[in-house]
Every structure is written in structure tokens, then in C-alpha cells.
Backbone:
């Protein structure tokens, strides 16, 4: 009997993880469809097929909103750097800097497509809820740090235009990449201008390559 305990413990853990994921996926759908203020824990519970008490275990609405966004964007909930996620780590291990760049851009484009409505909800909620605003600000900080890491990594992989950049120049390039690759850009081009995802992804890759290859061409203020 003692030998079955680890097995049962593993099954319980896997079941708990599956339930958590189902709740967060349901939260993402409810928040995207109804907005932050109109969404309720009961709505999320109904969409996930669990009890309200099960939803409450995963925190108040603001915690669910952040975790739902992180799961939808990066495939895993948790306030960690995107560079720590397994899929990004695998891309970062590539030797060819332009293949690395293409795959990173493709990942971000797909992530923006998954989270467009949810990001709009997150942004709107940050204007009205102090706790959400703090989480939103911290998330933006982590996003900028990720882009700085991306710039450094591409320089290490041999993109010549990055190597001579000063720290200020690298920050400016990271700022530009964060702006161009933002969920807001996806929302404007696809949600408002009617672009197809394929056109958006092609434009994003071309624009990011141009920004990187022309880095340092203009003086940093």
C-alpha cells in the first residue's frame, strides 16, 4: 500500500493542475467577453464547470486576471520572465540569430493573437483598480526587461548592429521593439484595421528586422 502513495499523490497533483488551467482558461474567456467589472467569480466557475469555492482558491478577480493573461500569453501562469519559459528557452538556444529572431517574433505574434481581448480588459481595469494597476505596472516592467534580454541575446548571437550600441542605445531599441510587438499594435492592426493574422505576422517580422538591422543609425538622445 505504501508504494501506491506517490502514484496517488501524482494523480492528485495532475488533477489539481488541470483544474487550475481550466479555471484560468475560463477566466480568460469571461474577462475577454465581459470586461473586468462585469465578470464575476460565478461566471468563471460556470464556464470552467467547477464550484465558486474552487475559483476562490485561486485568488480574487485581480489575481485571476493576471494569471489568466500570463497563461494565455506565455503558456504558464506565474510572475516570471518570459525568457524562463521552456518554449522561449528552446528558441534562445538557437545559434542562427535570424532564425532565433524569426521564431521569437512568431511566438509573440501568436501570443498577441491569443490575448488581444484579455489585454484590453487588463489595461482598462488598471485605470480603475489600484491593485490591478500595480500588477499591470509590474508586468510592463517584466516585459521591458524581456526585450532588453532579447536585444542582448541577439547581440551575443552575432547581429553586428547591436554590438556597438551603448546601454542607452540598447534600452532605446528595447523600447522600440516593445512598442512594435505590443498587444496594442496587434489590436489596432487586426481588430481595428482589419488586417489578417498572416499579414500582421509578416509585417511584424519585417519591421522588427528593420529596427534591429538599423539600430544605431540615428543618435540616441
Residues:
Amino acid at each position: 500500500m505504501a508504494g501506491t502513495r506517490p502514484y496517488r499523490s501524482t494523480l492528485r497533483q495532475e488533477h489539481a493542475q488541470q483544474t487550475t488551467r481550466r479555471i484560468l482558461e475560463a477566466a480568460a474567456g469571461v474577462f475577454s467577453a465581459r470586461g473586468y467589472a462585469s465578470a464575476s467569480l460565478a461566471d468563471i466557475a460556470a464556464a470552467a464547470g467547477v464550484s465558486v469555492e474552487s475559483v476562490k482558491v485561486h485568488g480574487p478577480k485581480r489575481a485571476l486576471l493576471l494569471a489568466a493573461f500570463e497563461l494565455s500569453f506565455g503558456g504558464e501562469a506565474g510572475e516570471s520572465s518570459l525568457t524562463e519559459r521552456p518554449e522561449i528557452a528552446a528558441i534562445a538556444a538557437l545559434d542562427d540569430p535570424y532564425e532565433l529572431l524569426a521564431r521569437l517574433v512568431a511566438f509573440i505574434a501568436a501570443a498577441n493573437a491569443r490575448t488581444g481581448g484579455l489585454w484590453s480588459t487588463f489595461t482598462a481595469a488598471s485605470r480603475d483598480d489600484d491593485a490591478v494597476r500595480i500588477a499591470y505596472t509590474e508586468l510592463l516592467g517584466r516585459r521591458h526587461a524581456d526585450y532588453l534580454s532579447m536585444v542582448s541575446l541577439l547581440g551575443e548571437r552575432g547581429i553586428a548592429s547591436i554590438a556597438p550600441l551603448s546601454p542607452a542605445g540598447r534600452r532605446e531599441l528595447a523600447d522600440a521593439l516593445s512598442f512594435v510587438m505590443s498587444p496594442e499594435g496587434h489590436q489596432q492592426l487586426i481588430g481595428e484595421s482589419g488586417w489578417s493574422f498572416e499579414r500582421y505576422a509578416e509585417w511584424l517580422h519585417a519591421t522588427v528586422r528593420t529596427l534591429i538591422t538599423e539600430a544605431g543609425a540615428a543618435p540616441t538622445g
Summary: Residues 5-38 form the longest helix (34 residues). Residues 2-213 form a domain with the Tetracycline Repressor; domain 2 fold (CATH 1.10.357.10). The chain has a mean pLDDT of 87. The chain has one domain: 2-213.
